[in-house]
Structure formats: structure tokens, C-alpha cells
Amino acid sequence: MPVTAILILAVGTFATRFVGPLLRDRVTLPEKARELMSASATVLLLALVVISALTNGKQFGGWALAIGVLVGGLAAWRKLPFVAVIVLAALTTAGLRMAGVA
Q1: Which residues have C-beta within 8 Å of that of residue 89, sequence separation ≥ 6?
Q2: Is 0.85 topped by the overall pTM?
Q3: pLDDT in tens, 81-93
Q4: How many domains does the structure of the chain reveal?
Q5: Where are the beta strands (DSSP E) in 1-102?
Q6: Three-point CA angle 32, 26, 43, nearest 5°
Q7: Distance (Å, rounded) from C-alpha 55 to C-alpha 2?
Q8: Residue-wise over 31-59: b if at least 16 C-beta within 10 A, else e?
Q9: What range defines the domain where residue 40 resides?
Q10: Same-domain check for residues 67 and 42
């Protein structure tokens, strides 16, 4: 059963990617639809980041993790180097966990 599902999904993915360039010149989307598609892609990516950053398995990862992610986000917003963002987020999370914040 899983192999069949994987094959069906693979064929569907290939068909979608193959048909897209073929229909590019034949199908035109309204500007509003393009804006909605762009916004929905951004929202889905943000939701994926939030879920993976704030959960530990299937449950909330704790306030220390949430605050660490927030510190990392602020550091990235301030355009600090990537290594500094990661180190600040990790040190914040580790420090809060050592202080007893779950």
C-alpha cells in the first residue's frame, strides 16, 4: 500500500511539473489570483517554520525554546550574521533551560 501511494504521488508531482510549462502561455491568471498565491505560499512557509521551531515532536517545546526562537528572529531582523543569530538563539534557549524555564 505505501509503495502504491508513493508511486501515485510521484506521478502526480511529475505531471504537475510537466504540464505547468506547457500551459504557461495558454492560461493567464488574474493579478489578484497571483497575489493570493504568493501570499499563501508565504503563509504556508511561515506556518511550517513556526511549527518546526516551537514544537518538540507533537507538543509545545516550552517557553525557553519559544523565547530562543524570538531572540533569533530579532537578531535576524537586525541583520546580524547568520552564525550570530544561531548562537544567540541557542545560548538564550540553553540559558533559560539551565535557569529552570521549561
Answers
A1: 68, 69, 71, 72, 75
A2: no
A3: 999 999 999 999 9
A4: 2
A5: 55-56, 59-60
A6: 35
A7: 27
A8: eeeeeeeeeeeeeeeeeeeeeebbeeeee
A9: 1-47
A10: no
